[in-house]
Specification:
This protein is of the alpha+beta class and 343 residues long. Helix content is 36%, strand content 24%.
């Protein structure tokens, strides 16, 4: 069955059935030329979009189509979370080879709609096409926020914190790139890091809570790696920053995989990317209240990793011995498909 035959009616009917319950704010959803949406009174509209290309952003040999559908939505959910917003509506454009079967398309949407249902998101439209080489997926996600948290409002003296462990996705990618998993590692350690790469869990509940919390001054999601994403905050806010290496949260599974592969877990933590944790800056006086409130509300613990400094200090990393080096690294876009970070 061709991609066009799969998508024109089959996908519309599939998505309509799967999202029939998610009608909040939807006057008219998938099936019309445009969706008709009704934002909550007093809310500002958030809009984000991500393009995922086979063998650039994902590899079919690494993941099932359910995994790919999940991740295509998850990366957009993480953007809305980083703004302190509530995700509401998604539009999905999908191009796949003419040989694609209806079962494959259904599997893709099953993964995406599983996550959408869990996060209260309705798929309200999109587009379909045939692709001459590989799958191409574009998701546009709309959300709402009463007070969006920006990258441009960090201040010198603020603390820097993250919502969870770093380097897991890079560790998972390193495992998945091998022809066979490294020997001697527990199954649960391998599962932890490979699942983190295939099915990242966006911090939507944490982002929504943090967006309403007094004292949170700036926020970003860790998609390209701590070094790159913190640099975005530094550039937009006109500040510098120091990160303490020994304070970075790196879990046992990531450390064990790094040891087995002869890799550096801290390099993954600072530059690996695709962790989709939230990095936030917070007024020092408000930190305890924010951390305790977040843990009570969501069960998520904040990890303080450094501080915002004046711009002339630049972005630096301090190791356990007190030595300071420039903080560099992270995923860069427009890389070739052969690049090992094109995962």
């Amino acid at each position: 069955m061709s991609a066009a035959a799969v998508t024109e009616r089959g996908v519309i009917d599939l998505v309509r059935r799967a999202t029939a319950h998610a009608r909040s704010g939807v006057r008219a959803g998938i099936g019309d030329d445009c969706a008709v949406l009704e934002p909550r009174p007093g809310s500002l509209l958030l809009a984000t979009t991500d393009l995922l290309i086979e063998d650039v952003h994902f590899r079919r040999r690494h993941a099932t189509l359910e995994d790919i559908g999940w991740k295509a939505l998850a990366v957009n959910l993480s953007d809305i979370a980083s703004m302190g917003g509530r995700p509401r509506w998604a539009l999905v454009a999908l191009a796949c080879p003419p040989s694609t079967s209806s079962e494959e398309v259904e599997a893709f949407y099953e993964g995406m709609l599983t996550l959408a249902t869990d996060r209260g998101v309705a798929v309200v439209g999109g587009d379909t096409s045939a692709s001459r080489a590989g799958w191409v997926i574009n998701v546009t996600l709309l959300g709402e926020a009463e007070r969006p948290v920006l990258r441009s409002t960090a201040r010198a003296g603020d603390v820097i914190a993250v919502t969870g462990p770093l380097g897991r996705s890079a560790a998972g990618f390193a495992v998945l790139e091998r022809s066979a998993p490294p020997q001697g590692l527990p199954v649960d350690a391998l599962a932890d890091v490979t699942t983190a790469h295939r099915r990242p869990v966006p911090r939507t509940r944490e982002g929504l809570w943090l967006g309403a919390a007094r004292g949170v001054t700036a926020m970003i999601d860790l998609s390209d790696g701590l070094a790159t994403d913190l640099a975005h905050i530094g550039e937009e806010s006109g500040v510098g920053a120091r990160v303490d290496l020994d304070r970075l949260p790196v879990n046992d599974a990531t450390r064990r995989v790094a040891a087995a592969l002869g890799a550096d877990a801290m390099t993954w933590a600072t530059g690996g990317g695709e962790d989709y944790e939230l990095l936030l800056t917070c007024d020092r006086e408000a930190l305890r209240t924010v951390a305790e409130g977040l843990e009570r509300a969501t069960g998520t613990r904040l990890h303080v990793v450094g501080e915002i400094r004046h711009a002339e200090h630049g972005l630096t990393l301090r190791d356990a011995g007190g030595r300071t080096v420039a903080l560099t690294g992270g995923f860069q876009h427009f890389q070739t498909r052969e690049d090992p970070r094109a995962g």
